[in-house]
Amino acid sequence: MKWRRVKAIVVKESLQIVRDPRSLMIALLIPLLQMFLLGYGISLDIKQIPLCAYDNEGSQTSQDLLRRFSASPYFSLQGQATSYAEVGRSLDDGRCSIAIVIPSGFSKRLNDTGQGLVQALLDATDTNNASLAAGYASAVIASYSAAVQLQTIEQRGASVQTLTPVEVRARVWFNEDMVSRNFIIPGVVALVMAIIGSQLSSLTIAREWERGTMELLVSTPIQPLELMLGKLLPYFVVGMVDACICLALAVFWFEVPFRGTLSALFFTTGLFLTVVLCIGYYVSVSIRSQVGASQVALLLTMLPTTLLSGFSFPIDQMPTAVQAVTYIVSGRYYVTILKALFLKGAPWGELALPIFCLALYAAAMVLLAARAFRKTLD
Amino acid sequence: MLGRIYHLLLKEFLQLRRDRSARFRLLIPPIIQMLLFGYAATFEVFNVATVILDQDQSQESRSLVAAFVHSSRFKLIAVATSRQQVQDAVESSSAQVGVVVAPGFASLLRKGQAAPLQVLVDGTNSNTALIALGYVSQICGNFGQGYALDLAQRTGRALGRPLVNVQMQERYWYNPNLNSRWFFIPGLIGTLTLITIVNLTAFAIVREREVGTLEQILVTPIQPIEFVIGKTLPFFLIGLFEVAIVAVFGMLWFDVPFNGNPLVLMLGTSLFLLSTLAIGLLISTVCKTQQQAFSSNFFVLNPMFILSGFSFPITSMPEALQWLTYLDPLRYFLVIIRATYLKGVGLDVLWPQMAGLSILGLSLFSLAVLRLHKSLD
Question: What sequence ranges are listed for the domain ABC transmembrane type-2 (chain B) (predicted)?
Answer without folding.
Answer: 149-375
